[in-house]
Amino acid sequence: MLCIEARGLRKAFGTTIALDGLDLHVEEGHIVGLIGPNGAGKTTALNAILGLTPYQGELKVLGRDPWTDRDQLMRDVCFIADVAVLPRWMRVSQALEYVSGVHPRFDRAKADGFLAKTTIKRASRVRELSKGMVTQLHLALVMAIDAKLLVLDEPTLGLDILFRKQFYDSLLNDYYDRTRTIVVTTHQVEEVQNILTDVMFVNHGRIVLDCSMEEFELRYAELMVHPQHVAAAQALKPIHERQVFGRSILLFDGVDRHRLAALGEVRTPSIADLFVAVMGNQAGAAQGAVA
Amino acid sequence: MNTPSNAVPESPLEPQKITPAAMSPTRPLYWSIRRELWENRSIYVAPLIVAGVTLLGFLIATIGRAMATVDPARKAAVLTEPNSFAAAVIMATTFVVGVFYCLDALHGERRDRSILFWKSLPVSDLTTVLSKASIPLVVLPLVAFATIVATLLIMLLLSTVVLLMSGLSAATPIPWMQMPLVLLYVLITLALWHAPIYGWLLLVSGWARRATFLWAVLPLIAVQIVEKIAFNTSYFGSMLKYRLVGGMAEAFAHKPHGHVPIVDLSQLTPGNFLSTSGLWIGLAVAAAFLAAAMRLRRYQGPI
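The joint structure predicted for all components is written out below.
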């Protein structure tokens, strides 16, 4: 079943086109990484999916129209926009009480269990918590909701490596159960590469690449070419070439790995490398979007 | 709102979860109002502080002036005069609290980005705006009622002690059976009469990006200036004044002079109040403002 189905999604802010006929299909039970440079339209797309912004085109999330049905949709969808949205005046205990008051699918005991693993005190106000603790609190609230779709927009922005690692670990171990769908955008691509089932590249308001991670591993190969084979390797039409310590690293799309193995060392590229290759090939692509 | 028929079937993995149908549609409203009280403690703290200050002044009056006054009639007057003044001061406080609450209600959540958190929960914009409107229209009048009754009771207690100590009878000119009724009537009529003011302030707080107070007040002044210069009239100004203070004249037969307490139930004219077109026009305008604020909140994000 399709969890998110978008066709020809368009949205403009004045003369800036944020979404330019975006088509998006996300199947239930997948963990999708939405990767793109700043201003590519990722957040606008997520806002449309969450019913936070009006749009043109067709969009169904869990069978509902998010713009007209936001409050109903939010029974089955959770999102973490970024680290700073929990109200600063609120106490941890109040946040727990409030969410269990308004959310029919919130499991208070589960949230208490997650919080017990942290050093967050119930009486603390959000403003007294560190950035990492606020994220832990938000994640505890969200993971205790029995939702079908979880949307994470730069959830780990500004957190140190330990918190980031812990964030994705608990998401995978304590939340993901293969029936839930997770859509995540992040610039820290290498941290999510191993948890994704699908990756999508967004640029200029469109999806420019959409493939499952299995397909990704089959299709793309990175070759650290032996100096004497550079010409032969280049003849196979790499989609990208870069130099590291004086050696050429070539990225191939759909070239047989056995053929490449004869020319040097072959490995699966990182999403970040492919991102640079794909975006670099696109005219006018933004620079340095991948950390 | 939340009708059980719209509930999406449970995920097959965890059928033991709480059934969404068990949630009543008023629950989100109840929790939204509680959340407003958590965030805005001034709703009940400010009237309590003013009541405390009033009582302090009254204490000084009883110990100082009343004790020193020999004439029994004047002594009783010193002790009863502050009653309606105390009630008026507490009411004025709740009005000011209501005004500033409304100006921040839909602005603060956008300023601190928490609107993204509130919108991530299954609470509709209708519920949110209604919960915020109910603070000045329901919660603050109730707070004012409780605070005023408690303050007047403490004053009665103090003055009774003073009068008894001076060997006078503790007879009080305040009719204690009628007072709460009259007070409740005043608070309800005021809230209904001022509803369009609160509606306007909520709308501005949901619309303005900054300086909500200026956006709420300056357009009203601008209209008056244009009207004065263009037509040399001041209908708009009179209309605003009527909206601000005209309600009491419609709700009571005799305008209460100065601080003379309203004691007679026959002075209440609910029939006249309810048949005033100004009341119904005001309520319709308030409803329109709230509907606009609700619609606006759908489009608004963090600023």
